[in-house]
Amino acid sequence: MKTRRVEPFRKPLIVPSARDGRTQIRFPMVAVLGYGGVGDRVTRRAVAGLPVQRASALATVYAPSTRGATFGSGDPARRVGTMIANYRVEAVVSSGGMGTVYLARHPSLPRRDALKILDGPLARDPRFRVRFMREADLAAGLHHPNIVAVYDRGDTPDGALWMAMEYVRGTDADVETGAGRMPPARAERIVSEVAMALDHLHRRNLLHRDVKPANILLSPGLPGEPERVVLADFGIARSCDDHYGLTRTGDVITTVAYASPELLQGWPLDARTDIYSLGCTLFHLLTGHAPFSDRPGLAAVMMAHIQHPPPRLSDYVAGLPAALDGVVATAMAKDPGDRYQTAGEFARAVRAALAVGCARGCGLRIPLPSMSIQPHHANPRRRRPPDRGRSHVSSGLAVPAGSP
After folding, report:
1. Hey, what domains does the chain have and what are their CATH numbers?
2. Could you give the CA distance from residue 50 to residue 81 in angstroms, rounded to a whole number?
3. Distance of alpha carbon 257 from alpha carbon 339, whole angstroms
4. Would you tell me the crossing angle of helices 343-356 and 184-203 to the nearest 10 degrees?
5. The dihedral of CA 292, 293, 294, 299: what is its sign?
6. Burial class (CB in 10 A: 0-12, 13-18, 19+), 29
7. Coil, helix or strand for 76?
8. Half-sphere exposure of 345 (CA within 13 A, CB side)
9. pLDDT tens per residue, the chain (404 residues)?
């Protein structure tokens, strides 16, 4: 039986803090994780991500004691009716831990765009601002029907950062699963569309790093046409690498419920971290909840992603083809080398498993990977990530491998 050695998971130290009524959560030798915006039902239950501080070998997340706290300061509605870079702000679309998205009228064209505003201390950090602008420029160079278009970026007189994006009418996959799981055919089509977007990114040596249902927008199609599936929120506000004073060991902010083991442990990343997250997303679409969401608390969810075998779909949903258990287990393998190597390969496996309809049909056989996990107490300076042969991307939406 194949054995994988995994670095020991260390439970976080939770330290109450009088500062701003927040709780300090420290994760020794593990990448820092923030939780997504208030629209993410699964991750919202634990902690909303706010700016990360770095102190010696400890990584810290500050969790607000009140749900719905935003990355910026003040009431998000205060900007409604104002002008930002000649955009007239008309309404709040969403507000979460990393900023606010507004509906805004384009200054010259007869259309409305989505205007994302990031303010607060992190947005005022000079290094972060340079990083934001660079990654916004990279995002603006992406042209794909399954990727939200980025039109422009800049800053406001009060120091906030803004980005103008395509406004996608509709909802997201997280909201759509709020009342229960999706039909398999719809889940497969959504995953296939997202896989095309990810392969487009990966061919350009870019990573998304925060693939999850809340970042998959669903827009009604024209009569007789299927709904449009669009991948959004490329983690630009979550890009915290050495340009923000952090190390290259993988200190990031992401959504724990869908994060890969290598991301959580600070190993170098490549496209297969997004494939892991897409496997978690498929599990969510088919069951109505994220993998390991039954674990008690943030530390237990992290431990499960790092050390525990993926859950089986068949344990939660009756009637799905048994081959799907193997497909999800392969996408969520602990070692990136055991996963599908492209998002398209994963999507094709999902489609094939559903087409077969049962494990014995058409001779399809997708075995579950072996996952005997043995904790390994290694010298942290000698840690090596699994399968380092492929180029990797340092962090965020889009930083070409090898970029400073």
Report:
1. 76-166 (3.30.200.20), 171-361 (1.10.510.10)
2. 27
3. 18
4. 160
5. positive
6. middle
7. helix
8. 12
9. 444 443 333 334 333 333 333 333 334 323 333 333 333 333 333 333 322 222 222 233 333 322 333 345 568 888 999 999 999 999 999 877 667 899 999 999 999 999 999 887 778 888 888 888 887 888 888 999 999 999 999 999 888 999 999 999 999 999 999 988 999 999 999 999 999 999 999 998 889 988 999 999 999 988 888 899 999 986 553 333 333 323 222 334 568 999 999 999 889 899 999 999 999 999 999 999 999 998 988 889 999 999 999 999 999 999 999 999 999 999 999 999 999 999 999 999 999 999 986 444 333 334 444 333 333 333 333 334 444 433 333 233 333 333 33
**Selected catalytic residue, list 210, 233, 241, 325:** 210
With 0-12 CB in 10 A as exposed, 13-18 as middle and 19+ as buried, what is 215?
buried
Q: Are 28 and 35 in contact (CB under 8 A)?
A: no
Q: Which of 331, 359, 363, 329 is closest to 344 using CA atoms? A: 331
- As given in the structure block, the two tokens for residue 23 are 């709780």
How many Cα atoms are found within 13 Å in the side-chain-facing hemisphere of 74?
11
What amino acid occupies position 252? V
Q: Which helix (H) or strand (E) holds 94?
A: strand 87-96
Helix (H, G, I), strand (E, B) or coil at 298: helix
Is residue 210 among the annotated active site residues? yes
- Secondary structure of 323-343 as H, E, C letters: HHHHHHHHHCCCCHHHCCCCH
Amino acid identity of 169? Answer: R
| Residue 114 CB neighbours (<10 A) | 21
Enter the tokens of residue 281: 């997303």
Residue 159 DSSP label: S
